[in-house]
Amino acid sequence: MKLLVILLFSGLITCCGGNSSHSLPSKLLLVSFDGFRADYLQNYEFPHLQNFIKEGVLVEHVKNVFITKTFPNHYSIVTGLYEESHGIVANSMYDVITKKHFSDFDDKDPFWWNEAVPIWVTNQLQENRSSAAAMWPGTDVPIHNTTPSYFMNYSSSVSFEERLNNITMWLMNSNPPVTFATLYWEEPDASGHKYGPEDKENMYRVLKEVDDLIGELVHRLKVLGLWENLNVIITSDHGMTQCSKDKLINLDLCIDRSSYTLVDLTPVAAVLPKINTTEVYNKLKVCNPHMNVYLKEDIPARFHYQHNDRIQPIILVADEGWTIVLNKSLPKLGDHGYDNSLSSMHPFLAAHGPAFHKGYKHSTINSVDIYPMMCHILGLKPHPNNGTFGHTKCLLVDQWCINLPEAIGIVIGALLVLTTLTCLIIIMQNRLSVPRPFSRLQLQEDDDDPLIE
Ligand SMILES: *[C@@H]1O[C@H](CO)[C@@H](O)[C@H](O)[C@H]1NC(C)=O
Ligand SMILES: *[C@@H]1O[C@H](CO)[C@@H](O)[C@H](O)[C@H]1NC(C)=O
Ligand SMILES: *[C@@H]1O[C@H](CO)[C@@H](O)[C@H](O)[C@H]1NC(C)=O
Ligand SMILES: *[C@@H]1O[C@H](CO)[C@@H](O)[C@H](O)[C@H]1NC(C)=O
Ligand SMILES: *[C@@H]1O[C@H](CO)[C@@H](O)[C@H](O)[C@H]1NC(C)=O
Ligand SMILES: *[C@@H]1O[C@H](CO)[C@@H](O)[C@H](O)[C@H]1NC(C)=O
Ligand SMILES: *[C@@H]1O[C@H](CO)[C@@H](O)[C@H](O)[C@H]1NC(C)=O
Ligand SMILES: [Zn+2]
């Protein structure tokens, strides 16, 4: 019976989903609004984004990767890899062997990026396809000697309008056609840091601005005739949590600055001891109860944050809302970077277009699952990665997907159908068995022997 149901449904899917014209290559626009915490969607109003979702899909929580910072998470989305495997392990890095430094202001050395191959590079290696980018981290770097055919050097002062204008222009009139494009915007991250996510009034204003930008994006795509055929994913790199001046961890109270180099500070500190690792570790270990201190070899496996030379010998992980400082006052009212199992660190994902269902809600996926899904949409062979394509099947029109409530529904439905069929068969059999005596009677009638007993 199960087989029958599956056959029935796969038939349905092939007949109804088969119209996606394979003549034109699918196009995908990947959009990130930095620091868009998943539950902003429940706690604030987003009329434009909600319209987008109504006609598309929503994933309420995207479990991102540790550490929950901007550069590492943006690179995980486009490679499907954990940080230890793609090599962008923080916004601030130091490589002991080459003595190179990386920071968000000094990120253009391909050395840092070449441990992975981002999707815009893979897309461009396909014949007759190009990629375009409006500011996504890494898109202005020649990774494996390749930049997107169309890109912008990073500058926070370029307006959303200009980024949108140029990316849509590239999507419309390029040869070979742009089939993969990215668009990045700094809000609501910047305001989340400045005001803290619990500042309802300021966050309301900023999130309304973000929603208006989404409205502008959809409007532009409609005006240009791109809306119906373009797949659009709107997502983010991480969430945001409230910090407090009462939740400071001052390393200077525990250890002399001269005994270590601080590669990254908060909320995950990367510590490179100068002489004696054990000594530094022992001092930090007892420094503050709101901070976990790990030797590199003891970092919990669930973080997938260990097997890379750029991860320093000791890392410190502050508890949610706590800030690590060097004898300073609180630097920001909101922050991220914390444990990726905290829901405050999770972003969301919404998507719209011919590849996606309409009006479908899904509770959770991992951020590394986005990459194999994008490769599927673009018809690209994914590089080895840590994502699972199966996790996103329910979002896609050309996939067979089943979850528990649906499975129960289908089984009950199938039982009803079978019962009805059985009843019908019984009734039919009864009907079929009735005419026989009649025909005999008719014969008898012909014999002029009436219906008398
Ligand atoms: C199938 O595709 C054709 C052209 O590509 C389109 O005109 C038609 O409306 C589509 N039908 C369905 C059911 O989507
Ligand atoms: C690539 O595009 C050119 C011109 O648009 C066309 O002549 C050629 O057949 C295309 N190649 C493939 C493999 O689609
Ligand atoms: C956007 O396109 C315009 C017109 O082609 C160009 O002058 C401008 O430099 C582009 N902006 C960026 C940031 O690349
Ligand atoms: C980006 O900056 C580099 C170095 O300043 C410059 O050579 C290049 O032309 C710029 N690229 C774009 C697309 O603006
Ligand atoms: C912290 O800084 C103040 C001055 O800003 C200085 O007086 C104090 O000694 C410092 N404390 C530590 C532990 O370094
Ligand atoms: C490092 O410090 C620990 C604890 O203070 C000490 O036992 C050990 O001998 C030191 N090791 C070296 C190589 O100095
Ligand atoms: C993640 O994927 C990479 C590439 O396939 C692989 O080398 C690595 O072992 C994977 N990590 C985990 C934790 O499975
Ligand atoms: Zn960010």
Automatic annotation (TrEMBL):
| Pfam families the record matches | Phosphodiest
The residues the entry assigns to the signal sequence are 1-18
> What GO cellular component term, any one, is given?
plasma membrane
Protein's UniProt keywords contain Disulfide bond: yes
Its recorded name reads Bis(5'-adenosyl)-triphosphatase ENPP4
> What does the similarity note say?
Belongs to the nucleotide pyrophosphatase/phosphodiesterase family.
Entry superkingdom:
Eukaryota
Its GO biological process terms? blood coagulation; positive regulation of blood coagulation; purine ribonucleoside catabolic process
Give the encoding gene's name: ENPP4
| Subcellular location(s) per record | Cell membrane
Q: Which cofactor does it need?
A: Zn(2+)
Protein source organism: Mustela putorius furo
